[in-house]
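[step 3/7] fold_predict: job queued, chain A
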Amino acid sequence: MSDGRAAKRVAKFIKPLRVKPGSTVDLTEDFDPRYKAGMKKRDGVELLGTGVSLLADYQARLAAQDTYGVLLCLQAIDAGGKDGTIRHVMSGVNPQGVRVSGFKVPSAEELDHDYLWRYAQRLPSRGEIGIFNRSHYEEVLVVRVHPENLDRQKLPEEAKGPDVWQRRYREINDWERYLTDNGIKVVKVFLNLSKEEQRLRFLKRIDRPEKNWKFSAADVREREHWDDYQEAFSEMLSATSTPWAPWYVVPADRKWFARICAAAVLAHTLIGIDPQYPSLDGQAREELLAARRGLEAEAP
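[step 4/7] structure written:
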């Protein structure tokens, strides 16, 4: 398939997932966690393989051009499938060109800085794909659902007023615009999991010994805040899906389909950049040809 046909196919596939900038999102009403675009799993496996190959090609070009970086932000509720998505989508790319960063409870050093500081330390360099497994959006999700976390950030009183979330949305949008203007493309994927599917995945983590390590009693306590998180997700998507850094809501109840969608969103971003291998100038090409002649002369 030509690059042009691939680009059109990918763009059409992900269009229903994109949060239109300026729109108001009600996550429970607007996006179905079980949506699969009429696709069957056996067809999805082949399509994912095609997507992974496409990513490998574009990542090689991205690294060679060394002009743009790509930041993929993955957000989801617990058991949403972030780890598996990263593992499958990036399975065919060069590990040297990808950096995955996870963000848990901030350290004492991180709390002594502004809330975006620790995320800025992990940004991808030019030529690199950076993946945030959870991201700076935790600052308007977990921190919002659990306001005690805001108190730990040592903010002055005037910075903790009722407009704190609207202000953070604006600051995050401005930061992402700054990154994009400087060659770091930002793409954001929200893995949309249903409450029932989360329940089933929690049970599997409890019942299967090899998955016990992935389960924590804190996960069930967080589940009690389901409605609060759905509201926070909806407001986040409404306020921070921008033309320069759009959100894509990926149906996550079927892991195989979620992985196809995530690969397609990342491929769409790379196709849009259209990185190219550098071309040699006249002197460099002459040096290359001279090296070739010398190597050929060594032949027995």
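[step 5/7] annotate
The mean pLDDT is 93.
The longest strand covers residues 184-192.
exit 0
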